[in-house]
Write a structure and sequence with these properties.
The complex is a heterodimer of chains A (about 325) and B (about 500). Chain A is an alpha/beta fold and about 325 residues long. Helices cover about 40% and strands about 20% of the residues of chain A. Chain A has 2 domains: about 200 residues, D-Maltodextrin-Binding Protein, domain 2 (3-Layer(aba) Sandwich); about 100 residues, 3-Layer(aba) Sandwich (D-Maltodextrin-Binding Protein, domain 2). In chain A, the strands form 3 sheets. A 5-stranded mixed beta sheet of chain A has the order 2-1-3-10-4, sandwiched between helices. A 3-stranded antiparallel beta sheet of chain A has the order 8-5-9, covered by helices on one side. In chain A, strand 1, helix 2 and strand 2 form a beta-alpha-beta unit. The N terminus of chain A is likely disordered. With about 500 residues, chain B is an all-alpha fold. Chain B has one domain. A two-stranded antiparallel sheet of chain B has the order 1-2. Chain B is globular, with a radius of gyration of 22 Å. The relative contact order of chain B is 0.18. Chains A and B meet through helix 2, strand 2, helix 3, strand 7 and helix 7 of A and strand 1, helix 14 and helix 19 of B.
Amino acid sequence: MKFSKRTLFGFVGATVLAAAPIQAFAQDWEPRKPIDFVIMAGAGGGADQIARFIQAVAEQQDLTTRPLVPNNKGGGSGAEALIHVNTASDPDHTILVTLNSFFTTPLRQENLGIDIQTFTPVAMMGVDPFVLWVHKDSGITTFEEYVAKVQEMDGEFVMGGTGAGQEDSIVIAYMSGAYDLDIKYIPYDGGGAVAKDLAGQQIMATVNNPAEAKGFYEAGDFVPLLAFSDERMPAYPDVPTIKEMGHDFSYYNQRAVVGAPGMSDEAAAYYQDLFTTIYESDEWQGYLTSESLSPLWMDADAQRDYWALQVENHQNLLAALGE
Amino acid sequence: MDVLLLLADGMLVSLQPLNLMMIIIGVTLGLFIGAMPGLGSVNGVAILLPVTFLVPPSSAIIFLAAIYYGAMYGGAVSSITLGIPGASTAVATTFDGRPLAKQGRASLALVTAALASFVGGTVANILFTLFAPLLASVALSFGPPEVFALMLLAFATFVGLGGDDIPKTIFSICFGLVLGAIGFDQISGAPRLVLFDYNGFLQGIGFLVLAIGVYGIGEMLWTIDQTRGDVTATTPQMTIKGMAADTKEAARRGWKGTAIGSFLGFFVGILPAAGATPGSLMAYGVAKMVSRNPEEFGKGAVGGVAAPEAANNSASTGSMLPMLTLGIPGSPTTAILLGGMVIWGLVPGPRLFVDEQQFVWGLIGSFYISNLAAVLINLAFIPVFIWMLRMPFTILAPVIFVLSITGGYAATRDMFDIWLMVGFGIGAFFMRKFDYPLAPAVLAIVLGPIAEPTLRQSLLLSSGDPSIFFTRPVAGPITVVALILIFLPALKFLRRRPAKGKRPAS
């Protein structure tokens, strides 16, 4: 078994080398033990799905000599994961799948002592838009009906989302402010649980990412009302954007991989190569299309600038929302 | 009918030579991985996932299912023979499995565990086959208030009719709840109870760390203390005849626990919030509650081995349901299986049962076969496991200690957890010295983190009105039953009091 695996790896390695000579230096460093693949969210949510997909692609194509071991640490709006990675005893074998709580959680909880600029950029795998969903049994079919319904219920309309100050609550708070809506917000530990409770009609609406809601949408249970993307999404051409409604707002969840602070340059180069290979794979490109993610590829320096910009944006957003 | 045809097809596929070989290898590997403390089915499936790319997808899924089943059986082995829970799902098995082993009846405990697991797995498979789509909607009807009511019921089974000292049980539960509250708050994101500002506390207390500390190390200290190092080794005899007698006794004394575990475990397993560990603990509580001699539990009741073992197997199968129909893995292991499925282009979700019928029923078919293979292989290995017990305690104790430490380290690779584990071991020893029951604390640390957010979500839903737990059609009855159970001892006490009060008057 070992023999054949190694042969296979050699084969893949040779192909990569032949195709892209620039990646040769990555061979200088290789993981020596299983890689702690930390996820900033609970099981079943968008970030978790992506992490498992990446793990699957890496396993299938035998891209790593040691396995990526997914490790869900969703506690404290991702603070648990940030602390875990920040204090990792072996930064060369610790990487993190992030979402926007990578920016918001350190802002909201300064006492955690997290400076995200000390983390090591690895890869920006794409950005995930948000969509407003209701259950088909609610009878609501358009955003206008939704606004009317929420106003009619006067504070009793229940929406679910991820933890306080996280992405879902930012989107919902913006929408509430823009349309003068009084919404009861229930926090969950991940997007999967949120979607499940909309399917069971425990809550009345969500702003799940398309990947989390897609199964229920295809089964006819969920109705999309409004997209928070810049343009209409190819998979949901009839769903208007909030920009069309006259509000200059769009919001995406970053799907990026970062390394622990203090990761060696060699290890960072290894992971950057690894995730470039995964990003360029047909599987990942297919995933971006089928799950309605937008590509937003950046190199390491561009990622650091992007982080700074996002921190500033979120500072303004949170301030505007009174968080 | 279509379903049965597809199912039979799935079973036939599993019986092809290559697949049968995968089942036998998978179950055997799983059995030993499960028996190693700290290495549960999660690790087994994660470690062996790459191997599955060497065979066709259907064989790969069968292989993973076989490991999963094997590990579920294996977890009981170290719980019974060494007193160290092999996996968090097998913690409840130590409660009675270990006492039985100490009485020299390890083979009875192991046979009971194997048979109960088999029945639990089979019942779950049948329920799955017959009612999968229906049960998926049951899982959906469980919102935060229902889940909280169920957790309340679980606590109630431990308080109500335990036969233990009630104030001490309640103390134990509260202690566990406090430990369970350590770490980040899910709702506000704020860190809580970070004792001495140790970062290790931020991620909360790992359940396996607690369980290995309490049962592995605590148990070892307890045995040394009780026997003053002079352990008269009970050399268990192992004969075919003895095993047949054990089988009979297991069936006679364990059927009730098995039945409870099979159904309750499955039901708890299909709820995405729960999984096999809460399922097995709750089954233990209920089995103890309905037993005619609850005082036997914790001292070597066969039912106390049968119920959690049936439940953890049943719940493991049950947890496949939210994974397949909702895309939400019910347990860490199913999460890894989910990753496996995604690679093969299978998208879990409500459409899977419609679009990929052949895959779904093929998988279920392979569950039936894996389960059968697991029980046969497990029974065949029992003499090997028994042999471990023949070691004198002076050798066994260091082995237990080393296995506990490595097991605790393997789970998180964090030295902090080792110290915590040793601390729990010593703490547990003193709790036993002062007659505090440990099981309720263990239960509380598993269920607390499920109960707390659901309680708060429910109260947010109702704007702080607790009547939400009584007015909803599913949550209402569960809450009422739970409250009756909790207050039953108090009612009994009140009824006795006036009787006593009257006597001097008359």
